[in-house]
Amino acid sequence: MARTIRPSSSSTLIFLLLPLLLQFYSGKSELQFNYYAQSCPRAEEIIKEQVVKLYNKHGNTAVSWVRNLFHDCMVKSCDASLLLETVNGIESEKASQRSFGMRNFKYVNTIKQAVESECPMTVSCADIVALSARDGIVMLGGPRFEMKTGRRDSTESYGAVVEDSIPNHNDSISLVLSRFQSIGVDVEATVALLGSHSVGRVHCVNLVHRIYPTVDPSMDPDYAEYLKRRCPSSDPDPQAVLYARNDRETPMVLDNYYYKNLLGHKGLLMVDQQLTSDPLTSPYVEKMAADNGYFHDQFSRAVVLLSENNPLTGDQGEIRKDCRFVNSN
To answer: Mind telling me which SUPFAM superfamilies this protein's record contains (predicted)?
Structure first.
């Protein structure tokens, strides 16, 4: 008769402790809910208070917080490398052409200072980027959802690889999908994330090629006329504050009008309109256009996936005192 071999109590203990031991020796830990529950209990509350205050004073900050998360997490890691200034010849990611039109970076430090006043050197800039995006989404009429924390801040800027990481607005949808899939964001989630364009606006320099010298045949003629009124020149000044919106019905609400407009051939950027013609993405466009709740569910899931891309945790990186600069030794 076969004899059952039962592990000793000591071997069972080692088995249970193995994940913790590996974490200790690797310096790596996982993101978790309520990471600051002991070290800074009001951290998330303070960030939310600042997000609401800044939104009420400068409404467009909420859109900036969402875009910050995308630009930070697509490049290497969700590690606040986006926020670093150019220092010692290392170019800031903010200087990339992919970052054109981004603003309100100074208000990230407003949030950081509020947190620092209560919990010095405790809450990372990377978590502020993530949580401000989550709370900004609510200010834009989007869904409320929970997000894990425990990210740490990069001590490096990755300006040299930004253009290899962040898709361009004129890239093919297949390239866009592959970029997102490379960081663990699936097709359905990618379609949902592009729904953030519901509250975005685009500078004329990035869209005139679709209306001059001739109108893109995939575009609704009446929408093209609207764009020509917004962007009357085929060669606009890149610095001119001329822009158009994807969603004219609810321009500051994160909702499914974006997808309804796509089905009506009113996509603002080439990448937007391609969502309706690609067989991988078009079914999701139709489902999101038909059901705002479904869009919100998928958008929440997508933002969480994006926010957990390769974070620095444990003893990796640092907690920056000033989000613009690495700590001085």
So the answer is: Heme-dependent peroxidases (SSF48113)
120 appears as a binding residue in the annotation:
no
Residue 195 to residues 103, 256, 257, 285, 301: CA-CA distances in angstroms? 20, 7, 9, 9, 13
Distance of CA 307 to the CA centre of its chain: 7
Report DSSP letters for 158-171, one per residue. -GGGHHHHSPPTTS
Residues 278-314 pLDDT 10s: 999 999 999 999 999 999 999 999 999 999 999 999 9
Q: Which of 51, 53, 56, 52 is nearest to 68 (CA)?
A: 51
Q: Which of 71, 169, 203, 265 is catalytic?
A: 71
Residue 190 known to bind ligand: no
Distance CA 176, CA 194 (A): 10
233 marked as part of a ligand binding site = no
Domains in the chain, CATH or no CATH each = 43-165 (1.10.520.10), 173-306 (1.10.420.10)
